[in-house]
Amino acid sequence: MTQNSLAYFLEDLWTKGFKLSDEDVRFIYFGKYSVNAAEWKVIIAIKITLKYQHTFDPSFFISVLEHIAKPYITTKKHVFKALEYRGLSKKQHTRNYQKSKS
What we know:
Blueprint: H1 6-15, H2 22-34, H3 39-53, H4 58-68, H5 76-85, H6 90-101
Helix pairs in contact: 2-4, 3-4
């Protein structure tokens, strides 16, 4: 198992205390195979889902994955530009979090 593999990433989440259900893991693999996405894109989609939803939200995950699985998105930089274009940016997330804490 390579360090960048999806299975390693999911195991790492588990050891860090983030417990996905068996159903969530099956859905992640279902999404991976249904959109024919590379593992690195699936990992990014999981990270984005957890970052914005603070839990695993299958519909949000599949929406992100479908968007970034497009063949013209070939690098992580392209992924983040595409997500930013769709309204998901790190700055926006941080700003919303800071507002909600006030």
